[in-house]
């Protein structure tokens, strides 16, 4: 198709309704086991993180919620944090639990062999539910670092049973209109076995719990070569895709900017989403970022990420689905593929710029933010204190 | 532990009861897309395949069943084939369907966009059920080559729905005391998406069908790095591990001799089996070989495979599980691992030789078969005709 | 950048000079070890393959050479084949040797333990040099299927030594103005070790031989996750990148259409090419396709492939390299990346259509070929005979 | 073969001469980006690390050298450290440079775009050469964290040129009887491209430098599926295998105990070593451990590692190489493989216990160390101070 100057009405409507949740920790320092580099202006407390996150929304108009990580984002008064977010133009999204940084969790948390450690981990999640309610959120996200490094270290089967029991206790605390989402991950920090390594395991636990439990798909948490869009289609078919953690990877869980490593994969994923209408708010799928900006500017990286998802979603929405179905009916492999690629190669940037201007947003959010002076301002203001990172 | 000269009573009992099913096609020619090499003496019909397969059982005492592949193993009178097997000292095991070699299946079979092709594929499976009954078998194994090579070629979601419907029709034909098992595979022959790519997908379809549907785990059908023993433990926990396809791999679905590429992986898998008593006949898990002997002698390769599984199972049975649980309770990672490794490194071959002699079997089945003259005999006899391979 | 309606002069010049070589075997049938599907109209002899290949050039203007595979493309009179190609508007490109389909090569060819088999394989290559000269070609491509399936099967080290000696004998036959290129491959058809598995091994042998020996990089012949553009940059730095085999892959050596699996990877690769001016004919790099069109129309697939490379090369040429260097100097990670992505997302199709029309070519070669009636014509004409595939 | 009670004379001699170098940092805390767990008794300074490392040698008799990491192991008086090591019965081995933890190295070190940063990194290596001499060492090991996270971030080619120049400056400082070894790594901490990602790149730089530069092979630094023993054979064939970093992995660079993830791979690697006599001190290959003991006891983990290498080397030495060559000559794939496996499955532990006792060592070093009370003693003594980890 020729480069469109405006978006079709329905595409514009869908994009206007579509939103992405950003992670508070994406605005703090991150790195690898080798080194965490700091940057001037990095937030020193959860309020500053939210202030930065609000910039992402201010410039893109598509990132109205901020996920918290508990206890990294612990504050004395969560209602004050909620109110502060509101003043900044955003709200609190998912609450992410953390059972991987206390010494007691060295050998597991909800799967731990010792009931006392499991108790502690369960109670942590119940506390997270309190934080959730105190911040106006309705969702608790559970990612477990649980696993083992050596064959024989613990019983794979027994840990599954412990996990089921622990989750059942947490689930009992989930009220109407609330939900938990369970994230799976192929490996890291455990290097022999991981207790929730794949979508099948996450889904089985959710099915056992009930309808308020759903699966989180993190695009970086799969084995090499995994067809992620297949999993998306499958989880949507089961009505159990609760949330997305967007990022990208070349090797392991690299946590790079979404769309940076393989933009065509992002397009294929979003096309599966679009085909099942899961990009619409009514689907209940929460689209989130979960990334590390180790080397690059964090706010800029977040804005770029939101734009990458938005642009790619626009492409996915532009696929001529009637023509595609027709080519598929005729088993015309190359034409079907060409119809998909036509949308992928269409330059949606001019039309998106126009769309943003209509909404009173900068046509070019990335450039506009860079020119805004915000980063220079906070770098000058945020002197002293401890920059926040992956720690409470 | 010191090298045992005899097996503990319970281990000997378990090994005596344990059996492995061999594939008829393992005795025919196989290869890669580049070349299929032939060998003198290769069977020219299903009867000769069964005769060869019976050698594996005669020398190991542990391979009493032969899987058939239909229509590769089509004969005019299946009861004659069943009787012939009986005379050779073996019986017919699983019937494997084939929906990947007719031109009509170019774009799929049970998942095909066109109802007429699905009909044909469903009917083929119903016919396989007939073959199953005619040969005294009770099990139908379904592996599908279905998938696509290019994004957009077909609808991933629609194909799942077609698959569910097609399987339901087949399942309706499965009687009491019978079962179907559904195999998953990461990729090949499809290179973009595969319709049953992972255990989760296979399990979801089995759950939707009912208790007579179970999952087949082929050890070569996973993404790089996948922890297969975890999947074993998980499927056993769901009571849905129907069968195993043993082989080994370094790269893709290499179909090498089981235990050849990573003997420690085989040990870990069998230890998960043993911990849930799934090696016992009562578990209903059918342990099968599914391999290609492209370069090596086929019967020798099959015997070696049976011995590899048997020896490794003996090691898994020798793990001091009480001591292991105790070390795990103390979170003594290295001792727990050492207990496992102690069994792995124990040389069970002398005790197994003694065990075999007690059963009236050759102490060294591999060497005994090589010395038996069978290969020379069939090479001399089987002159003319067409050697069988991966074709009907 | 905004969508260009015409290409900048230098870009147009570079594209006009750039050419892609197509493989004769890409026009024949191909498949997997499971099944090779036939298609009406598939060539029955090398002349028909060249006629089909010439269509790719006629519609794209960028595919003037056809690689041969010997003995698959053996004809009685190679000068007649050369002349026929000339009449069709194309010439003969690289000659590809074949040492993987004779029974003697079951355990290797140039690396074989037995001197007599090595002799045969060396002589085959010397014969290929004759074919090369008879067809007006100057290049011999060597890809070896050599390797082993089981640890211990043969000596890895001894095979390297044999390989070095065998190659030296072949190299002695390479005259001035001629060259050999040595292709590496991660695995398949060998599943334990491959004798030329990586670029390092290929390069070491080329360095030992001399300047008329160079490396072939096939984009599908690497381990999962390998950064191929790094290898491109490294081989160019050594002046040893002789040729490219384009295709794409999701899993193993899937041999899909170039750019189909990961178009951004193709862009990154071509950008490394462009940065070292290696896209220019003077570089001596031969850009070739090596693909399997198992399910799709073969000529259409080839045309699509040529267009994918051409479009992506245009994008790579449009990168604002001065701005990129400036952003790199400032360590502005996101701006540097954005400059690259700007070119990637630019829709070059309108400008390329205009460029083609100026050259007297169809603006849309893919659609034009589909509308030409050629496929229907050959399907009607080519009745009887044996369709060609991966066999002599 | 039957379980030997004593080692053959030549095997005993080879094992007596064989030694493994242990890393000082293996005795400090380590972990993942998620968490570093501490343990009572962890060393607070380089002297305590060496004291712990000396335990590994005291109990195994095979770990007489300790690698240092600079500046992690910086002390005021290196000759004092050297003397302390001597008193503990060990000596200082390789000096490992570190250019990944200063803020200046955020975008690279020896490859950095800015000459001033390269200067600093070069000077650091020259300083390491001083440390080397001050500690009685003769070897400098270079592993670079250099790379990029995003396409376009920097010029892959220019960085190679910078690397070559920087290494040349360092190499100029390497005297007779000294050497540098250059380690390659597939990825991490860089996630798009790594400047020395594979053995080919490392070897090219070493070849350009001269004979005092050799390659380090770390068993965890390869793409999934890589045949590492092939690389070993290839580097030995080039006389450029300088050193080994032993560890094991299931996924990425997991840095688990050597032999823990895939003991058969370790055996195959050591068998290639043995076949080229590279296990002998005269080969100049330095066999080292490079591991992280995140969860398990560090000294115990090191002892287990040394024992794993020693036991596996014994197996590799027991391979009946004459019989193997004979089976290979006959292309008897299964017999050749069986000869290898026979050695692998042979239980060498009783013979090794006897061998150790003859040398005045504990028959069971792992158990003996655990019973020695050393860990309890240092846990009680080392109170206060800062436990050492991956930091200066």
From TrEMBL, chains A, B, C, D:
Keywords per UniProt: Cytoplasm, Isomerase, Manganese, Metal-binding, Rhamnose metabolism
NCBIfam families, alphabetized: RhaI_grampos
Top-level division of the source organism's lineage: Bacteria
UniProt protein name: L-rhamnose isomerase
Pfam families reported in the protein's UniProt record: RhaA
Species annotation: Brachybacterium ginsengisoli
Single annotated GO MF: manganese ion binding
UniProt keyword ATP-binding present: no
A GO biological process held by the record: rhamnose catabolic process
InterPro entries in alphabetical order: L-rhamnose_isomerase (IPR050337), Rhamnose_iso-rel (IPR013457), Rhamnose_isomerase (IPR009308), Xyl_isomerase-like_sf (IPR036237)
UniProt entry tagged with the keyword Cytoplasm: yes
């Amino acid at each position: 198709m020729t480069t469109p100057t405006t978006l079709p009405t329905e595409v514009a409507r869908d994009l206007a309704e579509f939103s992405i949740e950003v992670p508070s920790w994406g605005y703090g320092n991150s790195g690898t086991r080798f080194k965490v580099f700091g940057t001037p202006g990095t937030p020193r407390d959860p309020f500053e993180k939210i202030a930065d996150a609000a910039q992402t929304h201010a410039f893109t108009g598509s990132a109205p919620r901020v996920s918290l990580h508990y206890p990294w984002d612990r504050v004395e008064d969560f209602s004050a944090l909620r109110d502060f977010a509101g003043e900044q133009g955003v709200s609190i999204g998912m609450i992410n639990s953390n059972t991987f940084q206390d010494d007691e969790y060295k050998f597991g948390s909800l799967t731990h062999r010792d009931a006392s450690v499991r108790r502690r981990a369960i109670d942590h999640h119940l506390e997270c539910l309190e934080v959730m309610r105190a911040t106006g959120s309705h969702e608790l996200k559970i990612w477990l670092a649980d696993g083992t490094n050596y064959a024989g270290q613990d019983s794979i089967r027994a840990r599954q049973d412990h996990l089921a029991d622990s989750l059942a206790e947490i689930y009992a605390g989930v009220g109407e209109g609330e939900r938990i989402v369970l994230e799976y991950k192929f490996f890291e920090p455990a290097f022999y076995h991981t207790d929730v390594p794949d979508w099948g395991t996450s889904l089985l636990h959710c099915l056992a719990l009930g309808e308020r439990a759903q699966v989180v798909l993190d695009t970086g948490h799969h084995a090499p070569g995994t067809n992620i869009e297949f999993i998306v289609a499958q989880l949507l078919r089961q009505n159990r895709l609760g949330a997305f953690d967007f990022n990208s990877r070349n090797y392991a869980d690299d946590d790079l900017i979404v769309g940076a490593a393989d933009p065509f994969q992002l397009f294929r994923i979003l096309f599966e989403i679009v085909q099942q209408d899961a990009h619409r708010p009514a689907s209940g799928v929460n689209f989130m970022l979960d990334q590390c900006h180790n080397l690059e500017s964090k706010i800029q990286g977040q804005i770029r990420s939101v734009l990458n998802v938005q642009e790619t979603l626009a492409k996915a929405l532009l696929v001529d689905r009637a023509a595609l179905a027709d080519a598929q009916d005729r088993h015309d492999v190359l034409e079907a593929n060409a119809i998909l690629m036509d949308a992928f190669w269409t330059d949606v940037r001019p039309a998106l710029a126009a769309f943003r201007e209509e909404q009173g947003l900068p046509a070019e959010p990335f450039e506009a933010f860079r020119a805004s002076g915000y980063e220079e301002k906070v770098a000058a203001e945020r002197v002293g204190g401890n920059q926040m990172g992956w720690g409470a």
